[in-house]
Amino acid sequence: MLIESEILKMLRKSCLSFLLLACLGGSAYADWAFNFQPAVAPLADDALRIHNRFMVLVIALFVSTMAVMAYSLFYHRKDKGFKPAIFTGPTTPTLWVLSALPFIGLVFVDYVWVGVPAYYAAVTMENTQEGADLVLRVTASQWKWQYEYPAQGIKFVSSLSTPLTQIYQGAAKGDNYLLEVDNPLVLPVNKKIRILLLSSDVMHAWSVPAFGVKRAAVPGFLRETWVKIEKEGTYRGQCAQICGTNHAFMPIVVEAVSVERFAAWVAKKKAEQEALTTSAEKVWTKDELLQHGQGIYEKICISCHLPGGVGIPGVFPALADSKIVNSPYQDASGRLIKDGHLDRVLNGKQGTAMQAFKNTLSDVDIAAVVTYERNSFGNKTGDVLQPVLVRKLR
Ligand SMILES: [Cu+2]
After folding, report:
1. Which of 94, 291, 301, 312 has the least C-beta neighbours within 10 A?
2. Could you tell me where in the chain the CATH 2.60.40.420 domains are found?
3. What is the pTM (predicted TM-score) of this model?
4. How far is the CA of 140 from the centre of ligand 1 (A)?
5. pLDDT level of residue 28 (50, 70, 90 thresholds)
6. Taking the mean position of all CA atoms in its chain, how far away is CA 368?
7. How far is ligand 1, taken at its centre, from the CA of residue 216, in Å?
């Protein structure tokens, strides 16, 4: 690997000097990085190694063929009186050998140096189950990730936390612009993590370059991949499959921590979830619900229904003055009204971008956001939906 990295280093240097000479005064030198993110997992090591070998081969071929061509063009040119030989392929045994040798050599080098490792890398990539210490279920949806640890009984949603002002209103951009989330995924280092990938709407892809992991989540299929993170740290990725207007707004943040810190995090997360269950049982005041609901709206619903609930005519309906939002969600006998407000939020609308939120939002979240919508944007139903009722009707 020494030669490969030396060559890459040289390449980087020459690219840099060229850039510097061409346009820069030297100030941007330190910011300019080339090559992949450092690999912190076996799959990324493999991918990087094979990629580098390919690069070495391709560059060697490019340089040698171009050199022969340039030499021939220059020294065998017509104005030097050079008479071209006319033949269309090897005619003598010597020529046959000279043609066959590079071919065989190339096939051999390709096969042994790149093909065999690539084969093993591909097999390793698919070996998701053997020796797995932990199972993680990832469900993609427009435009967020839901992470679930079935054995630990933990489930949460992770979505973009970059303020909208930075995106739309020209506020100064943070260091991790569009690469930051509210609830990062937390994983232990040096454990094999089997990742099950699902999608609840369209195709997405879970991709973290430092792990060498990039796998599409396809609706109706269960896809798998795995990772074993070898170094503690924060790693960032993004959805890597164009999945709609806010495709750029579903980043992935992974905190890789020691096994002990992971255990502590699991305990904390479980306690939080239990607190959530108890808080769903109490009676909430209207103000509490409105405040919490506004938070949920601004985090999740605003990307489609927009600030002020104005929507985009013909694409995302306005919630301001919406018939559904301003009509009851429950009939006289206390049953959920089909296509009513609560039903729409719980169950979504099949075949549209309005997804079912019953699996990703808690009773409190749903009660709050529905109450908020019914009493905001000029809507004045005045009613309050309690979390206990959501639990009963969901
Ligand atoms: Cu996506």
Report:
1. 94
2. 134-169+176-268
3. 0.69
4. 7
5. very low
6. 29
7. 9
Which part of the chain is CATH 1.10.760.10? 282-393
Residue 378 backbone dihedrals phi, psi, to 5 degrees: 90, -5
Q: What is the CATH number of domain 134-169+176-268?
A: 2.60.40.420
- In the predicted model, is pLDDT for residue 4 greater than 70? no
Q: For residue 346, what are the CA distances in angstroms to 56, 111, 362?
A: 54, 54, 10
Ligand 1 centroid – CA 1 distance (Å)? 35
Please tell me the distance between residue 47's alpha carbon and the centre of ligand 1 in angstroms: 23
- Separation of CA 372 and ligand 1 centre (Å): 27
For the record, the structure tokens of 58 come out as: 């391709």
Paired strand residues for 208: 213
Centre of ligand 1 from the C-alpha of residue 224, in Å: 17
Cβ-contact 177, 10 below 8 angstroms:
no
User: pLDDT tens digits for 236-247?
Assistant: 999 999 999 899
Q: What is the pLDDT of residue 84?
A: 83
Cα 359 to ligand 1 centroid, rounded to whole Å: 18
